[in-house]
Amino acid sequence: MSLLIDNCGELVTCDPRRGDGPLGLRTDAAVVVADTEIVWVGHSGDAPAADRYLDAGGGAVLPGFVDSHAHLVFAGDRAAEFAARMAGQRYTGGGIRTTVEATRAADDDALRAHTARLVGEALRQGTTTIEIKSGYGLTVADERRSLRVAAGFTDEVTFLGAHVVPAGADADAYTALVCGEMMDAARAYAAWVDVFCDRGAFDADQSRAVLTAGRAAGLGLRVHANQLGPGPGVQLAVDLGAASADHCTHLSDADVDALAGSATVATLLPGAEFSTRSPYPDGRRLWDAGVTVALATDCNPGSSFTSSMPFCVALAVREMGLTPAEAVWSATAGGARALRRDDVGVIRPGARADLVVLDAPSHLHLAYRPGVPLIRDVIRAGEPT
Ligand code: NIG
Ligand code: FE
């Protein structure tokens, strides 16, 4: 089955070789999809015939968003903790243990249904690729269950047994469990391993042990780095060749230099700064230093309970100094880089047919009209959703 998408107000290819600027913008363009793939991109008048037709109505057409950082397998919420923060309380990550208790207590069906609800919410807002982490189980059985649930929704499953040390456990003994028995259980479902390398979570040695064990188990590496304060996370991520260092809220000059000279993506999570009242990292400085930047939601019940990539784009423009074009690139092609994928986050022949049609003529509107439901159509792997 083929599909022609025409009458695009603007085509955002996210491939600078295919158009203007970092977004590779084109006008008077059309796209043809066959089965799950994009097969043709070109001038509207030259488009080949297709079985079906989608009129973009003059709306901008973008690659589906790639949300490369989300914690969707959990139960309960922490709205009261959010309210307390807005009244002045600091975020410390201590509330993670509250969600661990609620998650352990939920049955499989409830956990799956809750995850499905959030994945659906993200899809309706244009997210066609999503990474999902475990990290609210923190026993071998509970982490295995979270990873199994995540694997029902995405191939980009991340083992985050090293989220925090569970209540009452010894940090080194727990790290050894994560590196041993838990890693063995995780490798059946996970593609990635992640560690929260920060104050109150895991130190540099413990984080290095987790990442090294993950690599030995065949997993790619990701790091929660420098969220709560300056620390070793970013440079550890770069040292070990991690795909991504996430948060990057508190960066030294040496951290920026390390990222700039590396293949490690800096994944910025503006929903977390929004929801914790932390200062935002300087995305402008990272971009200008030549760092590859991704934007993601960090969707989780504690520090960032949003599944909306358009909201993150708007925040990154308003608060992190990225231009709308840079923010949209970071939310699509940047996210794909953070997952080491070249088949998503881009509109080119051979890429997966993941496309979003906006109810607006240009990508600028994603930042210009924050909070407005601008996602008109979402096509995932060639299928209108
Ligand atoms: O990425 N920083 C660690 N983990 C999450 C927060 C988890 C929570 O508060 O429940 C994050 O912000
Ligand atoms: Fe996170």
UniProtKB/TrEMBL annotation:
<feature type="binding site">
    <location>
        <position position="224"/>
    </location>
    <ligand>
        <name>Zn(2+)</name>
    </ligand>
</feature>
<feature type="binding site">
    <location>
        <position position="298"/>
    </location>
    <ligand>
        <name>Zn(2+)</name>
    </ligand>
</feature>
<feature type="binding site">
    <location>
        <position position="298"/>
    </location>
    <ligand>
        <name>Fe(3+)</name>
    </ligand>
</feature>
<dbReference type="GO" id="GO:0019557">
    <property type="term" value="P:L-histidine catabolic process to glutamate and formate"/>
</dbReference>
<feature type="binding site">
    <location>
        <position position="163"/>
    </location>
    <ligand>
        <name>4-imidazolone-5-propanoate</name>
    </ligand>
</feature>
<dbReference type="GO" id="GO:0019556">
    <property type="term" value="P:L-histidine catabolic process to glutamate and formamide"/>
</dbReference>
<dbReference type="InterPro" id="IPR011059">
    <property type="entry name" value="Metal-dep_hydrolase_composite"/>
</dbReference>
<comment type="pathway">
    <text>Amino-acid degradation; L-histidine degradation into L-glutamate; N-formimidoyl-L-glutamate from L-histidine: step 3/3.</text>
</comment>
<keyword id="KW-0369">Histidine metabolism</keyword>
<dbReference type="InterPro" id="IPR006680">
    <property type="entry name" value="Amidohydro-rel"/>
</dbReference>
<feature type="binding site">
    <location>
        <position position="69"/>
    </location>
    <ligand>
        <name>Zn(2+)</name>
    </ligand>
</feature>
<keyword id="KW-0408">Iron</keyword>
<feature type="binding site">
    <location>
        <position position="136"/>
    </location>
    <ligand>
        <name>4-imidazolone-5-propanoate</name>
    </ligand>
</feature>
<dbReference type="GO" id="GO:0008270">
    <property type="term" value="F:zinc ion binding"/>
</dbReference>
<feature type="binding site">
    <location>
        <position position="303"/>
    </location>
    <ligand>
        <name>4-imidazolone-5-propanoate</name>
    </ligand>
</feature>
<dbReference type="GO" id="GO:0005737">
    <property type="term" value="C:cytoplasm"/>
</dbReference>
<feature type="binding site">
    <location>
        <position position="136"/>
    </location>
    <ligand>
        <name>N-formimidoyl-L-glutamate</name>
    </ligand>
</feature>
<feature type="binding site">
    <location>
        <position position="300"/>
    </location>
    <ligand>
        <name>N-formimidoyl-L-glutamate</name>
    </ligand>
</feature>
<feature type="binding site">
    <location>
        <position position="227"/>
    </location>
    <ligand>
        <name>4-imidazolone-5-propanoate</name>
    </ligand>
</feature>
<dbReference type="InterPro" id="IPR032466">
    <property type="entry name" value="Metal_Hydrolase"/>
</dbReference>
<feature type="binding site">
    <location>
        <position position="71"/>
    </location>
    <ligand>
        <name>Zn(2+)</name>
    </ligand>
</feature>
<keyword id="KW-0963">Cytoplasm</keyword>
<keyword id="KW-0479">Metal-binding</keyword>
<feature type="binding site">
    <location>
        <position position="71"/>
    </location>
    <ligand>
        <name>Fe(3+)</name>
    </ligand>
</feature>
<dbReference type="Pfam" id="PF01979">
    <property type="entry name" value="Amidohydro_1"/>
</dbReference>
<comment type="function">
    <text>Catalyzes the hydrolytic cleavage of the carbon-nitrogen bond in imidazolone-5-propanoate to yield N-formimidoyl-L-glutamate. It is the third step in the universal histidine degradation pathway.</text>
</comment>
<feature type="binding site">
    <location>
        <position position="78"/>
    </location>
    <ligand>
        <name>4-imidazolone-5-propanoate</name>
    </ligand>
</feature>
<protein>
    <recommendedName>
        <fullName>Imidazolonepropionase</fullName>
        <ecNumber>3.5.2.7</ecNumber>
    </recommendedName>
</protein>
<dbReference type="GO" id="GO:0005506">
    <property type="term" value="F:iron ion binding"/>
</dbReference>
<keyword id="KW-0378">Hydrolase</keyword>
<feature type="binding site">
    <location>
        <position position="69"/>
    </location>
    <ligand>
        <name>Fe(3+)</name>
    </ligand>
</feature>
<comment type="similarity">
    <text>Belongs to the metallo-dependent hydrolases superfamily. HutI family.</text>
</comment>
<feature type="binding site">
    <location>
        <position position="224"/>
    </location>
    <ligand>
        <name>Fe(3+)</name>
    </ligand>
</feature>
<feature type="domain" description="Amidohydrolase-related">
    <location>
        <begin position="61"/>
        <end position="363"/>
    </location>
</feature>
<keyword id="KW-0862">Zinc</keyword>
<feature type="binding site">
    <location>
        <position position="302"/>
    </location>
    <ligand>
        <name>N-formimidoyl-L-glutamate</name>
    </ligand>
</feature>
<dbReference type="GO" id="GO:0050480">
    <property type="term" value="F:imidazolonepropionase activity"/>
</dbReference>
<dbReference type="InterPro" id="IPR005920">
    <property type="entry name" value="HutI"/>
</dbReference>
